[in-house]
Write a structure and sequence with these properties.
heterotrimer; A mainly alpha (221); B alpha+beta (360); C mainly alpha (541); B: 360 residues; Helix Hairpins; Immunoglobulin-like; Cytochrome Bc1 Complex, Chain D, domain 2; five-stranded mixed beta sheet; C: mainly alpha; Cytochrome C Oxidase, Chain A; two-stranded antiparallel ribbon; globular
Chain lengths: 221, 360, 541
């Protein structure tokens, strides 16, 4: 992620009246996004704590989930590769926008969007399989194949964590599509690429959360 | 002068008595010690701070002091008012902690009573099989341990005169202990909001003299209303129930009624436990109940990754093994027991545990 | 203070006209006022519930409410409205929005559009939660403890959703303030020259940003528990109700510092102004502010001393809780030392500051009682706790808010209120407040539990006194509100700096111009450099 993030937009083409110049606005927006991502970390951390509590107190739950192949680690691994790749395409989109390469910017943004779509499709298959087998959270759980006491709780944690993560992917897709529209109107260049930059930060965060979720949910046991 | 001092002293004593419940146990007296210390310490700081404020308004208001002094700070002073409160807080913490340890660790030979909280009444289950509602009968001058759980939502059991309180939780046992020195009736409140009749979920601790306790155990009815009233509120009867709730059983009568342990014995048969657990030491599919209570056993602890650890077989272990048997399986036995969660209620678990305890 | 108006009397109030210019404004000053208006309306509603609760408790038996259920709903709404809709946003949103950019010498906050979004998010969440008043009133208490909150058939899910949404307003405001303080300080405004009000808002914003997301996930999990039965808090499904308490208090303890830190910031600005002296121990107060914010995150378990958690947890939480008294004490002593050898002007803001010191000291000292585990065992969940938190929240935050409101009022609208009436209101509030809540300490020690619709007859006398106090308190608030409303309409014109204060917001006309300053200010010294000529100026009260 090295080059590109050091680029700075000095010129005054685009800045709100209360900022001295475009540079100040850019730095402020970046800082705002970083703080927002910190709040997201705290938000997800609640779920990670719930996961940790369950794991520490009911380890046989993880045993059983893994043993009975409740989660398909290959689909999870595929999604991990997909998201990491989309992070790369997003980073390329950011650096393209910094250099004013309009076609590349649009292209890489589309690639990111498509990869996110793939992620959701894989998730769709995973979820629909579980719904079909009644491997559902808490009180909704009705899977005959595994009846250990705490597995429904694990499914709750699984669905809540991946569900909220998935929601963040969908929201990210919406924002990326909006960026594509603006990029097509040639709104980004060395003097102004703030929205792409901060969306990049958001997207990397979404990827990072998945990188934690995948081993903890799919590989442990 | 001495007359004035005696007057002031009497007033302070009266204020003390009027603003705190009677201390009906030794622990309550210890509690009062740290409490009054905090009250007087706070008074000192309060008078100091407010006194300073009043003094400043009088001496430095603008009509009196036209030229303010330009001061930014004073390191020495700032250090003092950081260090001294820290030391005082350590003292308060230390003293308070020693009282807390007393609260948590009761004597080993306490008489146990099970308390079941449910919307909106308190049920007490004694070792001899009696169940009372609303009135907890205990002997004076003997340590009593309450083992409590809820059948529905959170409740809390609070005896102000004993300075004792704990939440009563569904799915988990909590406990408190006390040794009542003052006979008579002591008020009990539910102090964790639990719905409509939260304020009606009252109870009484009925502390009996040795004579009366013998009578109660033998089944004689005790006229609670003849006993001394709640000493904290002379002139008021302590209340055990909210409005419209059923009359409590006032008798500790045991004849013709099964003891709790006997109830447990009947349950392990009717619930099918005897299929795998013996009561005479013989090893079946599962461990024998004989002599296991209080023992240190090696178990396969799944929370330690399937490692073998040593645990004490106590109430919480037994309860967990009834509800979720595969959590900690005794070494050398298979994890084949089905979970009983939802198939036994609070009273039944209590009875089964009592029965297991009785098999020495 | 001669030249007080801009070229054509142009200020942020007459800069543009019409409802749309307010509803779609990006001006932080207008947004602050809109927050103030809604928050005061919610304060009235929460206050009415309080008066009803106290009316019911006038005597044993049910006198006003037909059943305990209705009482339980009343205290739930009183708590939920006051906590989520009033006290948490109060000083940051209603005063901070207006004052912060001005004290920084900035034209606006860093993200004016997100500021407007924050306001509408707050309003939207509020409306969703308030709608339950007309559907099926919630009766869980504002703490929503499981499993009762899972079982109750009332419209709890909607209130949870409303609070969830309101949380985002808090997060966005905090985020906005942090970036503003980092990026938009005027030239010369170094960190060691920042007014202590801004240090307080800064620390508060950090707490808001870190703690509120945990509330969000907690409420979301409870909603899922109620709707689809995820089971993690429900003992019937193998979950742990005590886990809910951990989640809940991890936010809700820092939340009380979100309430009190800005209040302390107001006091830190008011006392030097009305003592005509620099604040005593500027660095210590700023450090103490951050010390308190830090410790706020590690003491949540002191709400759970009797929940059944381990002895070890109780040890740690009790010890850490006691530590918070040290920086708090440092602040109180520093404020007193600021008054020492000052030239005190007892205008209304200063009167409230004195009131704050009186009441907050009691609140803080009683906090020490509750921090000691063994003492807390007897006192927790009784009226002692109710008295404690009202002393720090009402006595603390609300009195400081009133100090700030009376201090910055002339800046907001360029008018001055009647000093005599404002003082009468202040005294009535002080007396009414203490008569209402002091007896509750005694009720608690004697054993009266909280959230009781009815009580045993022996508690009647003290309850009666408390209820009568609540009437004086209510009248006091009405007088204060009416006095300010009157001043808005027909108050005497106020100059740019009626108090002779030195922070930047006073170096511009009242009401301020649309972009706050006619010329970008440059800062050359600290915010409380009252010496020589400057020390002698000030109000004429």
């Amino acid at each position: 992620m090295a080059h590109g993030t050091g680029a700075v937009s000095h010129l005054d083409r685009h800045h709100a009246h209360h900022f001295k110049n475009g540079h100040e606005e850019f730095e402020a927006c970046k800082q705002g996004m970083w703080i927002f991502l910190v709040t997201e970390v705290l938000f997800f951390s609640g779920m990670f704590v719930a996961y940790a509590v369950l794991r520490v107190f009911y380890p046989d739950m993880m045993h059983d989930v893994h043993h009975h192949k409740i989660l398909d680690w290959r689909m999870g691994a595929l999604n991990t590769v997909v998201l990491i790749t989309s992070s790369w395409t997003m980073a390329r989109a950011v650096s393209s926008s910094q250099r004013g390469e309009q076609k590349n910017t649009v292209g890489f943004l589309w690639a990111t969007l498509l990869l996110a779509g793939v992620f959701l499709v894989v998730k769709y298959f995973e979820y629909s399989h579980k719904i079909h087998e009644h491997i559902l959270p808490g009180a909704q759980y009705a899977y005959e194949g595994l009846t250990t006491a705490k597995v429904p709780l694990f499914m709750s944690v699984y669905f809540v964590m991946t569900g909220i993560h998935g929601l963040h992917v969908v929201i990210g897709m919406g924002i990326i599509y909006y960026l594509i529209r603006r990029a097509k109107r040639n709104e980004f260049g060395p003097r102004y690429f703030t929205p792409v930059e901060i969306t990049g930060l958001y997207w990397h965060f979404v990827d990072l959360v998945w990188i934690y979720l995948f081993p903890l949910l799919y590989l442990v046991g | 002068m001495t007359k004035l001092m005696l007057c002031v002293f009497a007033m302070i004593q009266a204020a003390h008595a009027a603003t705190i419940p009677v201390a009906a146990t030794d622990l309550a007296n210890d509690w009062d010690g740290i409490y009054w210390f905090l009250v007087y310490l706070s008074l000192v700081f309060f008078v100091g701070i407010v006194g300073a404020m009043i003094f400043f308004v009088v001496k430095y208001r603008k009509e009196v002091n036209k030229k303010p002094k330009y001061i930014h700070g004073h390191t020495g002073l700032e250090i003092i008012w950081t260090v001294i409160p820290t030391i005082l807080l350590f003292v308060c913490f230390g003293w308070g902690w020693s009282v807390y340890k007393e609260m948590v660790h009761g004597p080993a030979d306490s008489m146990e009573v099970r308390v079941i909280g449910k919307q909106w009444l308190w049920q007490f289950v004694y070792k001899n099989g009696t169940t009372t509602i609303g009135d907890l009968y205990v002997p004076a001058n003997r340590p009593v341990k309450l083992i409590m759980s809820s059948e529905d939502v959170l409740h809390a059991f609070f005896i102000p005169n004993f300075r004792v309180k704990s939440d009563v939780v569904p799915g988990m046992y909590t406990s408190v202990w006390f040794e009542a020195k003052v006979p008579g009736i002591h008020q009990v409140y539910c102090t964790e909001y639990c719905g409509t009749s939260h304020s009606g979920m009252l109870a009484r601790v009925v502390v009996l003299s040795a004579e009366q306790w013998k009578d109660w155990l033998a089944g004689k009815k005790i006229d609670v209303d003849q006993l001394p009233a709640d000493p904290t509120f002379p002139g008021y009867r302590a209340n055990r129930l909210g409005e419209g709730l059923p009359e409590a059983q006032a008798s500790g009568q045991a004849g013709g009624q099964l003891s709790l342990a006997d109830k447990g014995k009947a349950l392990i048969s009717s619930k099918g436990c005897i299929a795998c657990h013996s009561s005479d030491g013989s090893k079946l599919v599962g461990p024998s109940y004989k002599g296991i209570y209080g023992k240190e056993e090696k178990v396969l602890d799944n929370s330690a990754g399937g490692k073998v650890v040593t645990v004490k077989i106590d109430d919480n272990y037994l309860r967990e093994s009834i509800e979720n048997p595969t959590a900690k399986v005794v070494e050398g036995f298979p994890p084949s027991m089905p979970p009983y969660k939802g198939l036994v209620n609070e009273e039944e678990i209590a009875a089964i545990i009592e029965y297991i305890k009785s098999l020495k | 203070m001669a030249n007080s108006s801009t070229a054509h009397g142009d200020n942020y109030l007459n800069h543009s006209h019409g409802l749309k210019s307010w509803l779609l404004t990006l001006d932080h000053k207008r947004i602050g006022l809109m927050y103030l208006f809604v928050i005061m309306a919610m304060f009235l509603m929460g206050g009415i519930f309080a008066l009803l609760v106290r009316w019911e408790l006038f005597a044993p038996g049910m006198q006003f409410f037909s059943s305990p259920n209705t009482y339980n709903q009343a205290f739930t709404y009183h708590g939920a409205i006051m906590v989520f809709m009033v006290v948490i946003p109060l000083i940051p949103a209603a005063i901070g929005n207006f004052v912060l950019p001005m004290q920084l010498g900035a034209k606006d906050v860093a993200f004016p559009r997100w500021n407007l979004v924050s306001y509408y998010v707050y309003l939207f969440g509020l409306l969703i939660a308030a709608s339950t008043l007309f559907i099926n009133k919630v009766d869980t208490g504002w703490t929503f403890y499981a499993p009762y909150s899972i079982r109750t058939g009332t419209s709890t899910t909607l209130v949870l959703l409303g609070a969830f949404i309101m949380g985002f307003s808090s997060i966005l405001t905090g985020l906005n303030f942090i970036v503003t303080i980092h990026k938009l300080r005027a030239p010369g405004l170094t960190w060691d020259r920042l007014p202590l009000f801004l240090w307080a808002i800064y620390a508060t914003s950090i707490v808001q940003v870190l703690a509120t997301p945990v509330l969000a996930i907690t409420l979301l999990l409870l909603i899922l528990e109620r709707t689809i039965g995820i089971g993690i808090f429900d003992p019937k499904l193998g979950g742990d109700p005590v886990l809910f308490q951990h989640f809940f208090w991890f936010y809700s303890h820092p939340a009380v510092y979100i309430m009190v830190l800005p209040a302390m910031g107001v006091i830190s600005d008011v006392i030097p102004t009305f003592s005509r002296k620099p604040i005593f121990g500027y660095k210590a107060i700023a450090a103490a502010t951050f010390g308190i914010a830090l410790v706020a995150f590690v003491v949540w378990g002191h709400h759970m001393f009797v929940s059944g958690q381990s002895e070890f947890a109780n040890f740690v939480f009790s010890f850490l809780t006691m530590l918070v008294a040290v920086p708090t004490g440092v602040k109180v002593f520093s404020w007193l030392a600021t008054m020492y050898k000052g030239s005190l002007r007892m205008d209304t803001p200063m009167l409230y500051a004195f009131g704050f010191l009186f009441v907050f000291t009691i609140g803080g000292l009683t906090g020490v009682f509750l921090a000691v585990v063994s003492v807390d065992v007897h006192l927790t969940a009784t009226y002692f706790v109710v008295a404690h938190f009202h002393y720090v929240m009402v006595g603390g935050t609300l009195l400081a808010f009133l100090a700030g409101l009376h201090y910055w009022f002339p800046k907001f609208c360029g008018k001055m209120y009647g000093e005599g009436t404002s003082k009468v209101g202040a005294w009535l509030i002080m007396i009414g407040f203490n008569v209402t809540f002091f007896p509750q300490f005694i009720l608690g020690v004697l054993g009266m539990p909280r959230r009781y619709a009815d009580y045993l007859p022996q508690f009647e006398q003290l309850n009666r006194i408390s209820t009568i106090g609540s009437w004086f308190l209510g009248v006091g608030f009405v007088i204060v509100g009416w006095n300010l409303a009157k001043a808005l309409k027909s108050g005497e014109k106020a100059g740019p700096n009626p108090w002779g204060a030195l922070t930047l917001e006073w170096q511009t006309p009242s009401p301020p111009p649309h972009e706050n300053f006619l010329k970008e200010p440059v800062v050359t010294e600290g915010p409380y450099e009252y010496r020589g000529e400057k020390a002698l100026m000030g109000s004429n009260a």
